[in-house]
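The methods section describes the discrete structure representation at length, but only in general terms. An entry of this sort, consisting of the sequence and the corresponding backbone structure tokens, reads as follows:
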Amino acid sequence: MAATNDNISCRAASTTNLPHDVLGNVADPALSAKTRLVNEAINEIGWTSFHLKLSCLAGFGFAADSLVAFLQSVAASQAYLEIGNGGYRTGATMALYAGLQIGALFWGLSADMIGRRIAFQTTLLIGSIATIIAGAGTNWVFFCVFVALLGFGAGGNLVLDPTIMLEFTPAKQQWVITAMAGWWGVGQASAGFIAWGYYSRAEWSCGASTECTWQNNKAWRLIMFTGGALMLVMSLLRSFALHLPETPKYLVSSGQDEQVVSLLHKLASKHNRPCSLTLEQLQACGTVNQELQEETAQMSAIRRAAKQLAGHLKGLFGTRKLALSTILIWISWMLIGLGYPLFFLYLPADSKTISFSALLSSRVPGYEPSFTETWRDYTISNICAIFGPLIAAAIAEVKWIGRRYTMSIGATITAAFFLGYTYIKTPAQNLALSSCISTCINIYYGTLYAYSAEVFPSAHRTTGNGTAVSLNRIMGLLSAVISVTADTTTVTPLYVSVALFALMAIVAAIFPIETYGKSAS
């Protein structure tokens, strides 16, 4: 009789109206049915203190990603004065994006094969150690190599963190993944405060006309040391503040039914919540990836890994609808990967006068903001980035707007503010427009993070995310090359950004899948 009930449960799960599972696991009905049962169990348990802790620890990855990017940007120019020795001026930026690109691809592809937990606990540690070592660089090549390594470590965060959070989160709280991107602004602001503090000591940073040494140019090193130490603390908190098990969605997609049931029942018991999922219910649905397991049973480890990787990539194109969605998501990540850095080309090369003032200086003769004004404006605009994802999380939960139109609204407003920025004539306008842009860019960006994770099927989620973020980094690398030849005193890069964000708004509006109100696969 029990077996009959289990089969009924499995059939009921197979007919549940959850479009993501239908799209993502169309080639594997066993995985589709099991995923629905796991979703029902996660929704039954609901939101707990475990999820609250995890949202903070996963948010550290967003903060670290933006922290390392901005630390490098404010430290590289002073490092170049001391140890550049005629090397490529934007070499550190190119090294960072190369590391981020390789890291996104490596951690994304591997996490679908070996699990999410290892990468989650490793990426920040690698990034923190590499950041500290980069601060001790004695030549430009050494510095750039370890900047690339810190990018490699941090590059997995934007792939893994929304994925891990999503795969534990009940459907009603999936808006948290969008809000979590607010940590990106925390990382940016932290980098600003760190740099502001050290560069305020004039004796700790040299000028282009003087000989720069460790003694008279220590600010950039202290910036890297402090940022690396902060990331190390985040890494330790990830390891010791919360015992993170493997995600239930990965376990079910890899056929570990017993571990899935044990994990969810332990979570429910710890927080005094119900959980009616049984091992018999999952086993009644069949075996996940049975054909693939039989096909690869006699293969070598390398051939098996290659076969699995090909299967994960193929799984992102399982239906026409999913294939179109995958392509459009990847295009969106490429567009924002170029559009976002183009605005920051307006950051001048001199780290002690960093501000969105290159265009303003060309329009207001004699305009030279004080040290305090420039760093104040920089910090304010970066703090504003925190609020973009929070606004996006609220808008995306409006039924008739959803995720797609939230992104479209964010991109459209950003394009409008970019256009407005071409008319700035005063420092107050400069600060107001740059702060608005910082907020609105992250309405789009924060939603895109969450939407990508929600749409990609669980079995192939980090492969899809990793490829998307990797394409994003390639475009960021291109922006570093553009910055060498671009004239930042003209409005041309801004008009290009306007066009890019207008295109992003259109692409978001035509996404074929709306994830509002649905459990992710």
